Amino acid sequence: MKPHQRDPLRLAVIGTGHLGRIHARLASQLPSIDLIAVVDSLAGAREAVAAETGVRGVADHRDLIGEIDAAIVATPTTSHQQVASELMQAGIHTLIEKPLATTFKECEQLVQLARHQNLVLQVGHVERFNPALTSVKDKLSDPKFIDARRTSGYTFRSTDVGVVMDLMIHDIDIVLALVQSPVKNVEAIGLSVLGNHEDMVNARLHFASGCVASLTASRVSYQAMRVMQVFTSRGFAAIDFGSRSANLVEPVEAVLRREYTTDGMSLEQQQESRDQLFSTLLIQRAIEGAEINAIEQEQIDFATAIGEQRRPQVDGADGRDAVAVAELILEQVDAHAWDGTQLGRQGPFAMPALPVLSGAGQWCEKSPSMPQRKAG
Protein backbone atom coordinates (compact mmCIF):
# COMPACT_ATOMS: atom_id res chain seq x y z
CA MET A 1 0.00 0.00 0.00
CA LYS A 2 1.34 3.41 -0.93
CA PRO A 3 1.81 5.95 1.89
CA HIS A 4 -0.88 8.61 2.14
CA GLN A 5 0.02 11.66 0.07
CA ARG A 6 -0.47 14.84 2.08
CA ASP A 7 -2.24 17.72 0.44
CA PRO A 8 -0.06 20.81 -0.09
CA LEU A 9 -0.09 23.31 2.76
CA ARG A 10 -2.44 26.20 1.97
CA LEU A 11 -0.32 29.25 2.81
CA ALA A 12 -0.37 33.04 2.58
CA VAL A 13 2.58 35.44 2.80
CA ILE A 14 1.72 38.55 4.81
CA GLY A 15 3.88 41.54 4.00
CA THR A 16 5.35 42.01 0.51
CA GLY A 17 8.50 43.95 1.30
CA HIS A 18 11.99 42.65 0.56
CA LEU A 19 11.74 39.40 2.58
CA GLY A 20 8.03 38.89 1.91
CA ARG A 21 8.66 38.96 -1.82
CA ILE A 22 11.41 36.33 -1.47
CA HIS A 23 9.18 34.14 0.69
CA ALA A 24 6.31 34.39 -1.78
CA ARG A 25 8.47 33.53 -4.78
CA LEU A 26 10.00 30.49 -3.08
CA ALA A 27 6.72 29.27 -1.59
CA SER A 28 5.04 29.43 -5.01
CA GLN A 29 7.61 26.94 -6.34
CA LEU A 30 7.51 24.33 -3.56
CA PRO A 31 5.36 21.23 -4.19
CA SER A 32 4.60 20.92 -0.46
CA ILE A 33 3.05 24.42 -0.40
CA ASP A 34 0.03 25.85 -2.18
CA LEU A 35 0.46 29.63 -2.11
CA ILE A 36 -3.07 31.00 -1.85
CA ALA A 37 -2.45 34.76 -1.61
CA VAL A 38 -0.08 37.56 -0.70
CA VAL A 39 -1.18 40.25 1.72
CA ASP A 40 -0.21 43.89 2.05
CA SER A 41 -2.10 47.08 2.85
CA LEU A 42 -0.22 48.83 0.03
CA ALA A 43 -1.98 47.97 -3.23
CA GLY A 44 1.02 48.52 -5.47
CA ALA A 45 3.29 46.28 -3.39
CA ARG A 46 0.87 43.39 -3.09
CA GLU A 47 -0.24 43.47 -6.72
CA ALA A 48 3.35 43.40 -7.96
CA VAL A 49 4.13 40.27 -5.93
CA ALA A 50 0.76 38.75 -6.77
CA ALA A 51 1.47 39.14 -10.47
CA GLU A 52 4.96 37.69 -10.04
CA THR A 53 3.71 34.59 -8.20
CA GLY A 54 0.38 34.09 -9.98
CA VAL A 55 -1.81 34.38 -6.89
CA ARG A 56 -4.28 36.97 -5.72
CA GLY A 57 -3.40 40.01 -3.66
CA VAL A 58 -5.34 40.74 -0.47
CA ALA A 59 -5.35 43.91 1.63
CA ASP A 60 -6.20 42.29 5.02
CA HIS A 61 -4.98 38.91 6.30
CA ARG A 62 -8.23 38.44 8.22
CA ASP A 63 -10.05 38.03 4.92
CA LEU A 64 -8.17 34.74 4.41
CA ILE A 65 -9.28 33.04 7.62
CA GLY A 66 -10.90 29.76 6.65
CA GLU A 67 -8.98 29.58 3.37
CA ILE A 68 -5.43 28.96 4.65
CA ASP A 69 -3.71 26.48 6.97
CA ALA A 70 -0.56 28.53 7.56
CA ALA A 71 1.00 31.94 7.05
CA ILE A 72 4.41 33.57 6.84
CA VAL A 73 4.46 36.95 8.60
CA ALA A 74 6.99 39.32 7.02
CA THR A 75 5.50 42.60 8.20
CA PRO A 76 7.40 45.25 10.23
CA THR A 77 8.51 43.89 13.62
CA THR A 78 6.20 46.21 15.53
CA SER A 79 3.16 44.45 14.02
CA HIS A 80 4.32 40.83 14.52
CA GLN A 81 2.53 40.24 17.80
CA GLN A 82 -0.85 41.56 16.66
CA VAL A 83 -0.86 39.90 13.24
CA ALA A 84 0.40 36.54 14.49
CA SER A 85 -2.02 36.52 17.42
CA GLU A 86 -4.98 37.04 15.10
CA LEU A 87 -3.76 34.23 12.86
CA MET A 88 -3.14 31.72 15.65
CA GLN A 89 -6.43 32.52 17.37
CA ALA A 90 -8.01 31.40 14.08
CA GLY A 91 -6.04 28.11 14.16
CA ILE A 92 -3.41 29.10 11.57
CA HIS A 93 0.17 27.82 11.86
CA THR A 94 2.60 30.73 11.68
CA LEU A 95 6.18 31.38 10.61
CA ILE A 96 7.26 34.85 11.78
CA GLU A 97 10.28 36.61 10.36
CA LYS A 98 12.92 37.49 12.97
CA PRO A 99 12.72 38.88 15.51
CA LEU A 100 9.68 37.08 16.86
CA ALA A 101 8.33 40.33 18.38
CA THR A 102 9.64 43.59 19.83
CA THR A 103 9.69 42.51 23.51
CA PHE A 104 10.09 39.37 25.60
CA LYS A 105 6.57 39.86 26.94
CA GLU A 106 5.06 39.88 23.44
CA CYS A 107 7.14 36.84 22.50
CA GLU A 108 5.98 34.89 25.54
CA GLN A 109 2.36 35.70 24.68
CA LEU A 110 2.86 34.24 21.20
CA VAL A 111 4.61 31.13 22.53
CA GLN A 112 1.82 30.46 25.03
CA LEU A 113 -0.88 31.06 22.40
CA ALA A 114 0.76 28.57 20.01
CA ARG A 115 0.91 25.96 22.78
CA HIS A 116 -2.71 26.55 23.77
CA GLN A 117 -3.85 26.25 20.15
CA ASN A 118 -1.50 23.29 19.44
CA LEU A 119 0.03 25.14 16.48
CA VAL A 120 3.47 25.29 14.91
CA LEU A 121 5.13 28.62 15.64
CA GLN A 122 8.42 29.02 13.77
CA VAL A 123 10.82 31.97 13.74
CA GLY A 124 12.77 33.11 10.69
CA HIS A 125 16.29 32.72 12.08
CA VAL A 126 17.35 31.58 8.65
CA GLU A 127 21.08 31.28 9.41
CA ARG A 128 20.29 28.05 11.27
CA PHE A 129 19.68 26.57 7.80
CA ASN A 130 22.84 28.06 6.27
CA PRO A 131 25.07 25.21 4.99
CA ALA A 132 28.13 26.97 6.41
CA LEU A 133 26.73 26.22 9.87
CA THR A 134 24.94 22.93 9.25
CA SER A 135 28.06 21.39 7.66
CA VAL A 136 30.09 21.79 10.88
CA LYS A 137 27.44 21.87 13.59
CA ASP A 138 28.23 18.34 14.81
CA LYS A 139 31.79 19.51 15.53
CA LEU A 140 30.75 22.45 17.72
CA SER A 141 29.74 20.79 20.98
CA ASP A 142 31.00 22.33 24.24
CA PRO A 143 31.98 25.76 22.82
CA LYS A 144 34.17 27.89 25.10
CA PHE A 145 34.67 31.09 23.10
CA ILE A 146 32.66 32.47 20.18
CA ASP A 147 33.40 35.58 18.16
CA ALA A 148 30.69 36.73 15.73
CA ARG A 149 30.79 39.73 13.38
CA ARG A 150 27.85 40.81 11.24
CA THR A 151 28.14 44.09 9.36
CA SER A 152 26.50 45.74 6.37
CA GLY A 153 25.73 49.07 4.82
CA TYR A 154 22.55 50.94 5.69
CA THR A 155 19.77 49.24 3.70
CA PHE A 156 16.89 51.47 4.91
CA ARG A 157 15.00 48.26 5.78
CA SER A 158 13.95 47.27 9.33
CA THR A 159 14.35 50.86 10.53
CA ASP A 160 11.61 50.28 13.11
CA VAL A 161 14.20 48.42 15.20
CA GLY A 162 17.91 48.87 15.92
CA VAL A 163 20.87 46.75 14.84
CA VAL A 164 20.51 44.35 17.78
CA MET A 165 17.03 43.22 16.69
CA ASP A 166 17.85 43.65 13.00
CA LEU A 167 21.22 41.89 12.60
CA MET A 168 22.71 40.75 15.90
CA ILE A 169 19.59 38.71 16.70
CA HIS A 170 20.79 36.08 14.17
CA ASP A 171 24.04 35.53 16.06
CA ILE A 172 22.33 35.63 19.45
CA ASP A 173 20.08 32.79 18.29
CA ILE A 174 22.98 30.72 16.92
CA VAL A 175 25.07 31.22 20.05
CA LEU A 176 22.20 30.20 22.33
CA ALA A 177 21.61 27.08 20.20
CA LEU A 178 25.30 26.12 20.36
CA VAL A 179 26.03 26.91 24.01
CA GLN A 180 22.86 25.49 25.58
CA SER A 181 23.57 27.22 28.90
CA PRO A 182 22.02 30.13 30.85
CA VAL A 183 23.42 33.63 30.34
CA LYS A 184 25.02 34.88 33.58
CA ASN A 185 26.24 38.34 32.61
CA VAL A 186 26.04 40.77 29.69
CA GLU A 187 28.29 43.71 28.78
CA ALA A 188 27.53 45.95 25.81
CA ILE A 189 28.11 49.33 24.21
CA GLY A 190 26.51 50.83 21.13
CA LEU A 191 26.05 53.95 19.05
CA SER A 192 23.25 55.50 17.03
CA VAL A 193 24.56 57.03 13.80
CA LEU A 194 21.69 57.67 11.38
CA GLY A 195 18.38 57.21 13.14
CA ASN A 196 16.57 56.81 16.44
CA HIS A 197 17.99 53.36 17.19
CA GLU A 198 21.43 51.90 17.79
CA ASP A 199 23.34 51.19 14.56
CA MET A 200 26.58 49.72 15.96
CA VAL A 201 26.83 47.39 18.98
CA ASN A 202 29.43 45.18 20.61
CA ALA A 203 28.22 42.74 23.26
CA ARG A 204 29.96 40.19 25.45
CA LEU A 205 27.88 37.32 26.86
CA HIS A 206 29.07 35.19 29.80
CA PHE A 207 27.41 31.79 30.21
CA ALA A 208 27.06 29.49 33.21
CA SER A 209 29.04 26.85 31.28
CA GLY A 210 32.09 29.14 31.21
CA CYS A 211 31.65 30.02 27.55
CA VAL A 212 32.13 33.63 26.52
CA ALA A 213 30.68 35.06 23.30
CA SER A 214 31.68 38.36 21.70
CA LEU A 215 29.12 39.71 19.23
CA THR A 216 29.62 42.71 16.95
CA ALA A 217 26.95 44.09 14.64
CA SER A 218 26.86 47.21 12.48
CA ARG A 219 24.53 48.41 9.75
CA VAL A 220 26.65 51.46 8.93
CA SER A 221 29.76 49.60 7.79
CA TYR A 222 31.56 49.93 4.47
CA GLN A 223 32.34 46.20 4.63
CA ALA A 224 29.71 43.46 4.49
CA MET A 225 30.55 40.54 6.76
CA ARG A 226 28.71 37.57 8.29
CA VAL A 227 31.30 35.45 10.06
CA MET A 228 31.65 33.46 13.27
CA GLN A 229 34.60 31.74 14.97
CA VAL A 230 33.86 28.97 17.45
CA PHE A 231 36.51 27.57 19.80
CA THR A 232 35.51 24.28 21.45
CA SER A 233 37.22 21.83 23.81
CA ARG A 234 38.35 19.80 20.80
CA GLY A 235 38.87 22.24 17.96
CA PHE A 236 38.02 25.41 16.09
CA ALA A 237 35.64 26.40 13.31
CA ALA A 238 35.62 29.55 11.17
CA ILE A 239 32.19 29.98 9.59
CA ASP A 240 31.44 32.36 6.72
CA PHE A 241 27.68 32.66 6.32
CA GLY A 242 28.07 34.88 3.27
CA SER A 243 30.14 32.45 1.21
CA ARG A 244 28.40 29.42 2.81
CA SER A 245 31.76 27.88 3.66
CA ALA A 246 33.68 26.89 6.77
CA ASN A 247 37.16 25.93 7.94
CA LEU A 248 37.74 23.34 10.64
CA VAL A 249 40.89 22.87 12.71
CA GLU A 250 41.00 19.67 14.77
CA PRO A 251 44.08 18.90 16.91
CA VAL A 252 45.33 15.31 16.89
CA GLU A 253 44.89 13.28 20.07
CA ALA A 254 48.51 13.80 21.16
CA VAL A 255 47.93 17.56 21.18
CA LEU A 256 44.57 17.22 22.96
CA ARG A 257 46.15 15.01 25.65
CA ARG A 258 49.00 17.55 26.06
CA GLU A 259 51.54 14.90 25.05
CA TYR A 260 53.06 16.98 22.27
CA THR A 261 55.83 19.26 23.47
CA THR A 262 58.32 21.57 21.81
CA ASP A 263 60.86 21.22 24.62
CA GLY A 264 64.24 19.99 23.39
CA MET A 265 63.38 20.22 19.69
CA SER A 266 66.23 20.73 17.27
CA LEU A 267 66.10 23.54 14.73
CA GLU A 268 65.31 20.97 12.04
CA GLN A 269 62.41 19.54 14.08
CA GLN A 270 61.07 23.02 14.72
CA GLN A 271 61.13 23.82 11.01
CA GLU A 272 59.38 20.53 10.17
CA SER A 273 56.68 21.22 12.74
CA ARG A 274 56.13 24.72 11.33
CA ASP A 275 55.83 23.39 7.80
CA GLN A 276 53.41 20.60 8.77
CA LEU A 277 51.52 22.31 11.60
CA PHE A 278 48.12 22.23 9.88
CA SER A 279 48.57 18.85 8.21
CA THR A 280 49.96 16.69 11.04
CA LEU A 281 49.18 18.46 14.35
CA LEU A 282 46.28 20.86 13.93
CA ILE A 283 44.44 19.23 11.05
CA GLN A 284 42.82 21.90 8.91
CA ARG A 285 40.20 21.28 6.27
CA ALA A 286 38.01 23.57 4.22
CA ILE A 287 34.33 22.72 3.84
CA GLU A 288 32.15 24.08 1.06
CA GLY A 289 28.48 24.18 1.98
CA ALA A 290 25.84 22.54 -0.17
CA GLU A 291 24.20 24.59 -2.91
CA ILE A 292 20.89 25.14 -1.14
CA ASN A 293 18.63 28.10 -0.46
CA ALA A 294 18.38 28.58 3.32
CA ILE A 295 15.01 30.36 3.18
CA GLU A 296 13.61 27.55 1.04
CA GLN A 297 14.90 25.01 3.58
CA GLU A 298 13.25 27.03 6.31
CA GLN A 299 9.90 26.87 4.49
CA ILE A 300 10.27 23.12 3.89
CA ASP A 301 10.93 22.60 7.59
CA PHE A 302 7.84 24.67 8.43
CA ALA A 303 5.60 22.63 6.13
CA THR A 304 7.11 19.34 7.32
CA ALA A 305 6.74 20.26 11.00
CA ILE A 306 3.04 20.97 10.42
CA GLY A 307 2.51 17.75 8.45
CA GLU A 308 4.38 15.59 10.98
CA GLN A 309 3.04 17.50 14.01
CA ARG A 310 6.52 18.07 15.35
CA ARG A 311 8.62 20.96 16.62
CA PRO A 312 10.32 23.01 13.86
CA GLN A 313 14.07 23.46 14.00
CA VAL A 314 13.65 27.05 15.26
CA ASP A 315 10.46 27.35 17.28
CA GLY A 316 8.80 30.19 19.13
CA ALA A 317 10.67 29.48 22.36
CA ASP A 318 13.98 29.91 20.50
CA GLY A 319 12.84 33.26 19.13
CA ARG A 320 11.61 34.34 22.57
CA ASP A 321 14.95 33.47 24.21
CA ALA A 322 16.88 35.40 21.56
CA VAL A 323 14.75 38.48 22.20
CA ALA A 324 15.26 38.10 25.96
CA VAL A 325 19.05 38.25 25.50
CA ALA A 326 18.67 41.12 23.02
CA GLU A 327 16.79 43.08 25.68
CA LEU A 328 19.64 42.48 28.17
CA ILE A 329 22.10 43.80 25.59
CA LEU A 330 19.98 46.88 24.90
CA GLU A 331 19.73 47.60 28.61
CA GLN A 332 23.53 47.66 28.82
CA VAL A 333 23.79 49.83 25.70
CA ASP A 334 21.40 52.34 27.29
CA ALA A 335 23.28 52.32 30.60
CA HIS A 336 26.81 52.83 29.26
CA ALA A 337 28.35 56.10 30.47
CA TRP A 338 30.80 57.26 27.80
CA ASP A 339 32.50 59.81 30.03
CA GLY A 340 32.57 57.76 33.21
CA THR A 341 29.80 59.75 34.86
CA GLN A 342 26.02 59.71 34.77
CA LEU A 343 26.14 63.45 34.06
CA GLY A 344 27.93 62.89 30.77
CA ARG A 345 27.03 61.14 27.54
CA GLN A 346 25.07 57.95 28.11
CA GLY A 347 23.53 55.26 25.94
CA PRO A 348 23.63 55.04 22.14
CA PHE A 349 23.16 58.77 21.52
CA ALA A 350 26.75 59.85 22.16
CA MET A 351 27.23 61.64 18.84
CA PRO A 352 27.73 64.47 18.35
CA ALA A 353 29.60 65.24 21.57
CA LEU A 354 27.78 67.64 23.85
CA PRO A 355 29.38 71.03 24.54
CA VAL A 356 31.40 71.47 27.75
CA LEU A 357 29.96 73.88 30.30
CA SER A 358 32.30 76.74 31.04
CA GLY A 359 34.35 75.88 34.14
CA ALA A 360 32.38 72.68 34.80
CA GLY A 361 35.17 70.29 33.88
CA GLN A 362 32.70 67.65 32.68
CA TRP A 363 30.06 67.06 30.04
CA CYS A 364 26.68 68.63 30.62
CA GLU A 365 23.58 66.53 31.19
CA LYS A 366 21.62 65.08 28.29
CA SER A 367 19.31 67.61 26.75
CA PRO A 368 15.61 66.75 27.11
CA SER A 369 15.32 67.20 23.36
CA MET A 370 17.84 64.40 22.59
CA PRO A 371 16.22 61.41 20.90
CA GLN A 372 15.56 58.45 23.15
CA ARG A 373 15.75 54.82 22.04
CA LYS A 374 12.36 53.34 21.33
CA ALA A 375 11.52 49.85 22.45
CA GLY A 376 13.60 47.40 20.48
Strand content: 15-25%
* Helicity range: 25-40%
* CATH-scheme architecture of the largest domain: 2-Layer Sandwich
Major beta-sheet overview = 8 strands, mixed
- What number of domains? 2
Which structural class best describes the helix and strand composition? Answer: alpha/beta
Looking at the structure, what is the overall shape? Answer: globular
User: How big is the Rg?
Assistant: 24 Å
Task: Walk across the major sheet and give the strand order.
Answer: 8-9-10-7-11-12-13-14
Distance between the termini: 53 Å
- CATH H-level superfamily of the largest domain: Dihydrodipicolinate Reductase, domain 2
CATH fold name of the largest domain? Dihydrodipicolinate Reductase, domain 2
